[in-house]
């Protein structure tokens, strides 16, 4: 395979992978063993779905959203040797830190970003409403919680995997205190991961009549993948049908030095709920990408996504597939 | 088979058909090969569902609602030799006409009515909100768009297949600009398909306590079939459950010379979402009839309907089955 | 007074009039005797507010919206020698006509348009929801009702006072079945006042951030006044505050031969609710213009408007005041 | 089997039963032949779901909610020799009684309580809105309707199976006139089943952050089972997701002499919609328990529950399983 | 004055009174000194409005809704020698009784009914939502609270001033837990003021198109006045305008022995918000009658009503004025 | 006058002032010349209401919210020699700064905080929704805009008048994108007025049943006044009646070194809409404090507040009046 867009990052030879089925004409294809994590993946789990997976030592570690059988939301650590078969803890992650910060009502929808040797976790944090929590771990055993990045109400906080022009950059989607029927993506900067500012609009919803699948809200998905073309951002877009929201996946390219500048963005969605495990579950019709592994050597990308807010799936693509699709079906 | 109600129209010996299964006690039965058109029936399709099918030359032609992968709504032409296996175009229909009329935001939910030798298309047309677009073709290659019949907001415009007392007649359902939670059927007249008036109420929703499936809204479905008993109108009725709208199919008989007079109307629905492809999809629990073929020789009727706003199904009945059912379960 | 814009129409030397107060810097000024009609202006009246006044013989006649003490809405005829002091009937207008047309649930918000020697009345007509009723009288004694112009749901139907390029022209504002929180102005054509078509968008709401007073909905007010510059249309615009709608008055100029083309439109409102009788009443904070008298000799204009959906007021301007204001504060 | 909690009641040796699958780690397990009643279980049925089943003579009788094909709601009697295979009537139950009481708009969601030798039925009764209807039968052939227990709006009325401190006790959930988005459980007393009073709050919803599955509303399910530990109440709890309500099952223990005192209540749900017939149907994602059989000899309990408002399922547990689960996962 | 309808009750020679102004053509006229109680009528009062006034010894006593400056709602006792000038307590009424009953969240909108020598108070009582509280006093010094009549949600509980066919009768209006946008009047019976049943619908809202002022909700006002024609019930009716609810007053006649039977009911309202103190205040546009004094000797009636949820007004009528108006303007 | 609480700040001998009327029993009294600024206070003004006033040189300067006659919101500078009679500019303030920051949709509800010799302005700033804008001026001629403090959606940003423990502190109220029906007060810190963090909850709404006037939302008002007891914060509280929001004024004391710690807070409101200019206007029933002057010598405080979103009023109190009232009527 010749690929032209270069992933800026490490090789990941053990990335989970299946070749594209010959009958598939789409830029992304599902893992044949989906869902990789069932709803009762742990004894107390009602559902395990929005996953945050990273290479860790010679294998993989992750932080998982697990709603327990009380349907309370929390974060759990998990490990896997192949990225597909996961052992997930039965007890939620305990964060050390200032009590005013760690005493939260709930945690959900984590992302994990490696910066240097440290693994930062960002998630939706229940502090008088949903906002963006930040913490870190060096070993997936001990976790430290930092200050919340923002005031409520916010969701889908995603940290860039390196400093840009000297600052940390954090994507997020300002929200309200319910099932928010709107939502645009912004980026904020920080020198120290405590104080945030220089907030900039990145992109918002698209018109119903020209790109309906993302006309109600959009939110950042996995940690952006740095490529020679720009930051590759997978995101979710939502349309509000008469019978509820449908969550689908799209992709955008952001400028490497000025991530609030959008270079390219899919007019077409790249994956939507079509399989029974995506169409049926606690929240029907949800495909929600939260993590991606990328192999700089081959351009392969494995995407982890929540299915119907109930189980976890994996899908595959390559940086070339995705970027060529984006360029030919851009907004 | 002896039948007592006569279909006023042409013989259609090649109408798609399956006999009623012996175990079936209902007035309508599904085609065993449903859905006949899958959601990715064309390369760019997200879904193909509300179909408008007519006999054309020795085979069949149709105008299809296809939402592409941007989930934008448009009309596409298709052809079939047997009415079941369809070739649908990858590019939307282009209408010629006055630019102020053809420059619309979206087109969806077409119906095709043959009057004389011309095939008229009516659809939901995005002109500052949904309204009823009208166009025609003689050959399913060249399409001309006429003036919108009405001001916004309107949906489910269905043209009668002949003039009545000298005028064209058009059914429609006034709406609002969202997921309209109400809706009654009206009929309007025109001498020239441009100016419309003499609007009359035909029928509306039924009380929740006596015919709940049609208590939220009703809308005309396929082009009415003229019979010796009256115009046979298949329509959809909607109930609003705590988890969304459910769309089912009913039937009414309208007076042949005064179509605003309802002779009979089903208290019971005649088909509802029960199959997985009707219960799951982009909009769960939708059975939405948009076209019907009828054979005057045998009384056979083949109904095309959208399933869960995602795929297309076919169901069968006969004029006698339907009218005897209507008469024994009338409102 | 030298005036540059010419009113195309009749002289009206007995037009009600007060000169502009010297301290007034605004394009419109209120009659010092406002409100001219009190809420109990007739024995059975709860409120009399949205008036339709025309010169008639040597004096004035009008059709009034009076909500009686059951708060049911209907039309009543009234007469006045000076246009300020009115005698209004205690019994509603009875329309002759086809029973399917005249048997309506309510009538409100009339406008009266003289075309030739006939006085046409358009109003919001309750036929399975609000739509535009049309009738006429030659003598303000006998009234004939014609077909409804449109399907429901519609309000604020206003007929142009002459045929344009051979057709009748009717402004209206498509609505929903409640306290519609949206609304744009359209124009439709007819050859015979029965069948209507060639519907065109005229203008809609303005952005909240640039002309907030008209960001929720707009609707045509009095019958347009033909001037050498174009059709002068007074209209209402609405903003939705946290404590309800506020209705104010604006003005637009429409092309004389193509009334869907907007030549000019006020960014600033020209009158809003400021007086106690405009701020308090059955619906607080409403200024709703429904009629205007114009004197071609002097350019004087007397505007009749409903106040707080309770009483009737009059305000004055001249065609020059208004058009110079429009041109200097246009959107 | 040694069991420690004693069911206060009769032996029921023919209770439907399947042993717990070895792989099952949950307190309740589904019948392998679910659903036991299909949606078209009778010729006119659209759906048969919320069942009220009791031992009757040597077999079983029941009162079923069947929505017919008009989707009107009514009660139907049924009989079964094994509690799993049911014969359900095609015609609704006719109640004798005062006409002002029996002339109702609809009946749904029945419960059947045996007190002495009489079978009392409570249900949601359409009298100017939903309220609690009460009737009785001695033979499941003749049915008598008594006065409604309450004013509208109320649902989920469940009668205790004996008098407590001399009075009848009735659980219920005050509601509104729509798809009520709130709801707590109350208990009321009566000396004669006609006049009700001494209304007490029993328990309400739980906080979203600590027991989310029951944060929107709760309602009593089957007739409480008397045990040595207290009244065992199965109930439903609801969460409102962005795509609709999810109904799950929980359990509580109420004091035997003061049923408004809650001794214990599950923080975790005990069963939720996971099977296709629970996730898909006329109302997706509904598990709604309405009846339970209990065998005092073995502690076995068979729970009947509605699935997706469409079909009927059965699940099994024992009093010990349930109470030990409740005690280890209590709010 | 000759009057034909006889008030069944005591003479009340010191009833507050003003003769009807000669210019008044309406059935009710306001006291010229309105409002009789200002919003800061006590030091801690934000507003004092919905009053319950009765003759007591040789003068008058009352129970008042006073919202204090925390805008918390409670009941306060007051006394007056002339019924117009009131001394109202600074501290709320303390009720003795069972703690589970008296420990309520709020009390508002009282009515006082004398039955025998005892003064019963009914009010809207905050027990897990609004319901109907009942208490009594013999001396307006000591107050005892009984059981709540109903489950939540209910408002406007009004007790008839004598037993009817052996039972107590209580009017009420089932509600929801917010600013209820619906509401009909029901009547319930009790033998002991503790257990209530035999609930019957009395009357509901009227159609928007025929009696719009009472199309959204209706609720009982003062204690019914027994007359030779039937129970004279003053009530409030509400319409929902685009800028909020408007509360007006109407009247009905109920059968003396079967109070659920409506003999007559005003199509026209009898008083609506027209004065500044009725149109402006904490809740604009509210006229809310809560008490009435009647003199059997003269037929005079003095009505106490809340104005804009802020102050208290008085209006006058006679039984003959009212009943002749009702009969000539009945629904 | 002896006063016990000391204002920490400058003497302001020319503070506007009127002594407390003898009949007044309340902690705050209105200026007898209210409103001090009328709605048409400038030629282009529709309304001038939420004012930010500070001592400047020997007189006073201010930044005013003026909605012009397009009802667009912007900030205008004004000057006054006595704090009561104001000259307000006809053209909005122009801010210099980075274009991405200054190019906003609207500006409203300013506060002005003097820190050192610089006057900082915070306001509600339209950047893809309402957020908190920050700028400064040294001379009220040249204005510089800094970065927005937060992501949308936020309102009522108020800066403390000195650094606390080395950091700037900013109060705000997270909101949604409409007429937010909720709202709590938070405080955030910054080292440089660009990057903000360490967000802490300060206080939120109070229960409806115990302090109803502030049960819907609360928001900081004028810049906190430092006193020997703590930071004196005037704020607004809102209740949602059936006819709209009512805005009233309350007060709280915050710890001087840890402003997220509430020492005291009024259960009673201290001023509410009672005057015609507070009850009627573009948004009825609004008292909205935005600025306060304080004289350290006398303890006098002059409060500037918006009235009905239309005009500007002034009220007076002293630090002793206020704090003794707070302490005796605390939550």
Give an account of the 3D structure:
The structure is a homohexamer of 331-residue chains. Chain A is globular, with a radius of gyration of 18 Å. Chain A is built from 4 helices and 22 strands. In chain A, strand 13 and strand 14 form a beta hairpin. In chain A, strands 6-10-9-8-7 form a 5-stranded mixed sheet. In chain A, strands 15, 16, 17, 18 and 19 form a 5-stranded antiparallel sheet that branches. Chain A has a 4-stranded antiparallel sheet with strand order 1-22-21-20. Chain A has one domain: Glycosyl hydrolase domain, family 43 (Tachylectin-2, Chain A, 5 Propeller). Chain A is 7% helix and 45% strand. The first copy, chain A, is mainly β. Chains A and F meet through strand 13 and strand 14 of A and strand 13 and strand 14 of F.
**Of all protein chain pairs, which has the greatest interface, and how many residues does each chain bring to it?**
A-F, 33 and 33 residues
Strand content of chain A: over 45%
Helix fraction of chain A, binned, reads under 10%
- Classified by CATH, the class of chain A is Mainly Beta
Q: What is the number of helices of chain A? A: 4
Q: Detail the poorly predicted runs of chain A.
A: none
Rounded to the nearest angstrom, the radius of gyration of chain A is 18 Å
- 3D shape of chain A: globular
Oligomer: homohexamer
Chain-averaged pLDDT of chain A: 97
CATH architecture of chain A: 5 Propeller
Strand order of the largest sheet of chain A: 6-10-9-8-7
H/E series of chain A: EEEEEEHEEEEEEEEHEEEEEHEEEH
How would you classify the helix and strand content of chain A by structural class? Answer: mainly beta
Structural domains of chain A: how many: 1
Distance between the termini of chain A: 28 Å
Number of strands of chain A: 22
CATH topology of chain A: Tachylectin-2, Chain A
**Largest sheet report of chain A:** 5 strands, mixed
Classified in CATH, the superfamily of chain A is Glycosyl hydrolase domain, family 43
